[in-house]
Structure formats: structure tokens, C-alpha cells
Design brief:
By secondary structure, this protein is an alpha+beta fold. The protein contains 12 helices and 18 strands. The strands form 3 sheets. An 8-stranded antiparallel sheet has the order 12-11-10-6-5-16-17-18, with no helix packed on it. A hairpin with a 6-residue loop joins strand 10 and strand 11.
Length: 396
Amino acid sequence: MIKMVITEEKIKSCAKNIVKSVKVMKDQCVFIRGGIYCQELLEEIALNVLRNGAQPFINSTSDNYATTINLDDEITVETIEKTPNHFFKMIENIDTYIVIEPFEDPSIQTSFPREKLQARSKAMTPIRDILYGAKKEYEPGKIWVYAAWPSEKAAKYYGIDYNLYEQFIVDGMSVPTEELVKRTQDLGKLFKNAKIVHIKDDLGTDCWVSIENRKPYYDSGILTDEMIAAGDIGGNLPAGELFYAPHEKLGEGTLFCPLTIDRFSNKIIKNVELHFKDGKLHIDKVSADNNLDDLVSSFRQCEEIDKSNDVAEIRTYNVAELGIGCNPKITKAVGYILTDEKIIGSVHIAFGSNKSFGGTSVSQMHWDFVTTPQASIEIEYLDGTKKLVMEKGKLV
């Protein structure tokens, strides 16, 4: 099949949408980060920032640079785990943080030593505290967006035709905001006055969480003044989901996720079965067809970082998010969470941090596990009535 080329028109359109999504305004300082494989997009984003009267700063690196840092024995763990003070100070002084997927080839991360990945995470902890307002002195955090971008190497890694992968990301990012607003808000009406949300599918998912009196968040690809005022100041592109911060110590059952990627090593993990009770993941009972040790190690490592970060209560394993996908251009799971969680008919539950969107948990962990797009959802409302709102991936 002939590969599609991302046209200059599409690049400019996506850049404009990315800047629009975070409401860049005059005199703001905007930090833009990504891989050199998408340099043209990064520069288009910066040009749009300038057109809005704001000041951009671009930082781009290569896959080779990241690989060398992690595989060069002369670059030590002790060096990597130190928080760079100049970067820390810059993040303190920016208004907006725009990140484009940094790796052209995600597979390179599978060879990185876990101790260096953990060291990098430790170094970034104080910076993430500022970005996401994890500590009181930094609340509510910086306005941010993390956007996907396609490459042939990434499509090969995820085992998907490049043309379809580009469609998921570029076309998914270009769905009109008005359409996503309607889709997410129409779905949200079904959840009004919801207490318990029960999710099932034919592959083993059978669980519930509580969203009683928790606020809905409509991910339509743009931050509104109301969202910013409420502290909801970040998002992903492509957009398209309705999500909640469920009660962190309620909920139980089994969740089956056919495809995900490890939080640290980026290794693909298939057919994950997770069990949780009283809102807490039983990490010792998790099963998977492959790379289970990586999944468990990532949770354990985040737990250790959380303990060293002096958080009020360890919430590494607690339920953090309930989301329902709404993007019409994304139809298939590939293992890439930025697109998988937007699939219509899928549901995802995350564990870890959720303070940035109405929850109470602070953690270095936030991992979304997505069902197949064949999920069924039954809602129990505050008045005790129940209603099936989605059956096998289709709204009822």
C-alpha cells in the first residue's frame, strides 16, 4: 500500500488545533517539547504561539540521544536521577507546556535498563509536582497538552498499517471540536445523578466504581474558561472521551485489557486481567500473557517513589479514572493509550493519580487500562433506579 504523506496543510491544521486546545494568550511563556522527527510540527506550533502574542521555546531531541543516555555506561544512574535545577526553574516560570510524542520509534525504550528509567522518573518527580499541581504550593499546576504524532516506525512497532495509524492520530485530532462537545455531552447526560457504574464484557470484565457526586469531564479537545477555573487544565490529543475521578476507595471486580504498554519500558503487554477491591488493585493477582514482570515492577517503582515523595497517603494502586471513548476516527486498539482510550464503545479504568481532575490521589502512577470496544455499561442512579446505557459498545 502506498504510504500517505502528512501534507503541509494537515501539519498546519494540527498545529493550530494544538495551540487552540490550551488557549495560548498574549505574553504567556510556552514550552514546546518533542522529537526531531516532528520538527516541522513543533515549529508550526511555535509560529502559532507567536501569532497569539506569546513567547515559545522549542526543545527537540532524537531517538539516538535517548538511546545513548540509557545505554552508555559512562552516563551513570546517579547523574540521571538528579533533578536538573535549570529545567526546574524554567518549568516554574512557564505558563503552558506542550509535548508532542518524543519518540519516532517507541521500540527503542524496550532495551533501556529499568534502573535508568526509574532514575529518570525520580529526577522528574519535582518537575511533575509543578506541572500537575501535586503539591499545595504549585496548585493547580501549569496548563498542558500531550499530543500524539505518527511515524512509520511507530506504526510498525504497534503492528498497524501506517495509513490507519495516521488516520487515528491526524484525522482524530482534526475532528471538529463542536462534534466532540456534542458526543461527550450527550453521553454525559446519561450519567447525570449516577451513583454506581457497572462495566461488563464477554472477555471477563465485570466490575463497578462509584462516581456519586463526582464531576464529569468532557474531553473535546479544548480547554474552556470554566474548565480552567475548575482546575481541569490539561489534556491529550486526539481528544474524545467522557471521564470521571471515581471514589478512590470504592469499587471492585475484574477488568480485562487486551492490549497495553508498560509505563516505563514501553513493552507491549497482552491480555491483562486486573482484580481490585475497595478501590485498590491487587497487584499480586494481576495476570497477563507476556511481560507481566514489567507491569508489576512499574507499579512497585511508582510506589517507592510515592513513599519517598512524602505524599499524605499511598494511592499508587487506587482507582483513579473512569473513561468512555467518543472519537469517531479511532476504531481499533493498538496499545498506544493516547488513541486507545478514545475508541467508541470502549471503557477504561486507571489506577494512581487523579488530583488534577477532581480526585484526591497524588501518585507518580497513572495507568489507563482499556477494554475492547464491546463493553456494556449499566448505571445505578442516586434514586436507586438502574439503566443499561451501553450494550456491547453501542449506546442504548
